[in-house]
Design a protein that fits this description.
By secondary structure, the protein is α/β, with parallel strands linked by helices. It has helices at about 35-45, 65-70, 155-165, 200-205, 205-210, 215-220, 230-240, 255-265, 275-280, 295-305, 320-330, 345-350, 365, 400, 420-430, 445; strands spanning about 1-10, 15-20, 25-30, 45-50, 75-80, 90, 95-100, 100-105, 115-120, 130-135, 175-180, 195-200, 255, 270, 290, 310-315, 335-340, 360, 375, 390, 410-415, 435-440. α3 (about 155-165) crosses α6 (about 215-220). The radius of gyration is 24 Å and the shape is globular.
């Protein structure tokens, strides 16, 4: 009897799967921090035989080599994937067995050129019980095809069309188990909240399967795609070459105020994970505010260049915060973490070092005064047409456009909820620009008709 366990990484919008048959297992599209899952399998007497990849990932660092190092599992993946490390390449029709379960490769290029799905056959049954579709068929949409660059987008979109038509021939009862889902920038269009589905449900409702023909599909699937995170450019090279094996969550070194000051002077970026109000009231000079929640690492990646050395200032409880911050950063390859400020902002102030601050406000305080105040809207998109008279610079573009901002008077930063507004304010504060961050309420309160 085949069991399939679902592990969702909500912060990235991704799902990994553990396929178990008898006392053997395969871990499909594993995250880098799968160590607890591997320990759980060992405790249950389940041997992980394969770390199975559907494609070279663009949105996170693969955990396949971590799985191999910890368990001796074979790394298996698309035969056309140009991995620089030893692996079992699976081409169309190739099979592996896990207990009494057969897994058969089905080449489904589109999301990437090498993309491969895997049909799951439970015992002797002739029809597949499930298919791991990776970034091909998603719940309510399909994987985007522009991540390999504009020169390949149309070619891959046409390949995606043909791959989806092949998948659509499977029985209605086949479980569809995608890697990407809601919250992932790897999807070409909004993905449904559900992580899994059936082929029958997708055939009836998924726009990617209902396009009249290939031309309509290509037009619909390649138009209006939002920008994807800048760190995506680095993930495929890391995953092709093979990321360093960590063997567990690294400890984070405690740093004195003097050490932090020296690191910052040498080019390290201080990232403060406390809440926005605490940051605005007092923070280390040059630091940026990235509240520690599920979106922490993805927002760090919006404004901090890949490879930058990081120093963390963390909220309490510090132990739990250290683990969560490091885990999220390692998932997307932000490995260069020098340590954290021991004792936090209090230790910095006690050592006689200065703090900076800026003002925060409610959206209501800005409403009605738009004409006399300079407003910077940092939302990634502006579906309502934008705030009248405001400067509009998406947060991800702000670091390289700071030099273009006027400095003759205070700037009010605004987004949808206050989260990006305070990050933007920390960037302006670092650049010496007077700023007030609208941290309660947002652009929706400023553009509503009276």
């Amino acid at each position: 009897m085949t069991e399939i366990e679902i592990m969702t990484t909500a912060s990235l919008g991704d799902t990994s799967y553990l396929l178990v048959s008898g006392d053997e297992a395969a871990l499909v599209d594993p995250q880098r921090d799968s160590w607890e899952l591997m320990e759980s399998c060992a405790g249950r007497g389940v041997r992980i035989r394969y770390a199975l990849e559907t494609h070279v990932h663009n949105d996170y660092v693969s955990g396949a080599l971590e799985v191999r190092a910890a368990t001796g599992a074979t790394v298996a993946g698309p035969a056309r994937a140009p991995y620089a490390f030893d692996h079992l390449g699976l081409a169309e029709g190739d099979e592996i067995t896990i207990g009494d379960t057969t897994v058969r490769a089905m080449e489904t290029p589109g999301h990437t050129a090498e993309h491969t799905s895997y049909l799951v056959f439970d015992g002797p049954r002739p029809d597949p019980a499930a298919v791991f579709t990776g970034g091909s068929l998603l719940v309510g949409t399909a994987g985007r095809t522009d991540l390999s660059g504009p020169d390949h987008t149309e070619e891959l979109a046409r390949a995606q069309y043909r791959s989806l038509r092949r998948l659509a021939l499977l029985p209605d009862t086949t479980r569809i188990l995608p890697t990407h889902g809601s919250g992932s920038s790897c999807s070409a269009g909004p993905a449904a909240a559900e992580r899994t589905t059936t082929l029958g449900a997708e055939r009836r409702t998924n726009p990617a399967l209902t396009a009249a023909d290939e031309e309509e599909f290509v037009s619909e699937r390649t138009a209006g795609l939002p920008p994807y995170p800048a760190y995506y450019h680095h993930m495929a090279p890391v995953n092709r070459s093979g990321p360093p094996v960590l063997g567990g969550l690294p400890a984070l070194r405690p740093l004195t105020p003097a050490a932090v000051e020296g690191l910052a002077g040498g080019g390290a970026q201080i990232v403060d994970g406390r809440d926005r109000a605490s940051f605005a009231a007092g923070h280390l000079p040059g630091s940026i505010c990235e509240e520690l929640d599920d979106r922490f690492a993805s927002l760090v990646a919006e404004v901090v260049p890949f490879g930058t050395r990081l120093v963390l200032v963390l909220p309490e409880p510090a132990g739990e915060a250290r683990r969560e911050a490091v885990r999220q950063l390692l998932r997307i390859g932000y490995d260069n973490i020098a340590g954290h400020l021991a004792g936090g902002v209090d230790a910095w102030a006690a050592a006689g070092r200065p703090l900076r601050s800026f003002r925060t406000a409610d959206a209501a305080e800005l409403a009605g005064h738009l004409a006399e105040r300079r407003v910077l809207d940092v939302r990634p998109d502006r579906p309502d047409g934008g705030i009248p008279g405001a400067l509009a610079v998406p947060l991800a573009e702000l670091p390289r456009k700071l030099g273009e901002l006027p400095r003759d008077r205070e700037i009010w930063t605004v987004c949808g909820s206050g989260r990006r507004a305070v990050i933007a304010a920390s960037l302006l504060d670092r650049a010496g620009i007077p700023v007030t961050a609208v941290t309660r309420g947002g652009a929706g309160d400023l553009v509503r008709p009276a």
